[in-house]
Design a protein that fits this description.
Blueprint lengths: L5 E7 L2 H13 L4 E7 L3 H13 L13 E8 L3 H8 L1
Length: 87
Amino acid sequence: MFAFLKKRIVVDLSGEEIRRVTNLLDHQAIKYELRTKRTRGSIGTALDSRSYAASNIAMYKGASTPPVVYMVYVNRSDYAKAFDLLY
């Protein structure tokens, strides 16, 4: 589907919340598109991997997992129905 025909309905860092939202949309037969984006870019991730490998420790040991932003898009024609369902 063309990106300009879609509208973003949810942005969240929680995978559990996104799963709850997508389950509700599935239950109402509203088509959606799920997109993810890492907050740390590919260069930053490569630098992290290289530095952890050089110091011979497990990546992100003792640290939280790298955050991922989840975005849910719906068709513009379904936006009002999805909005009423979620909010």
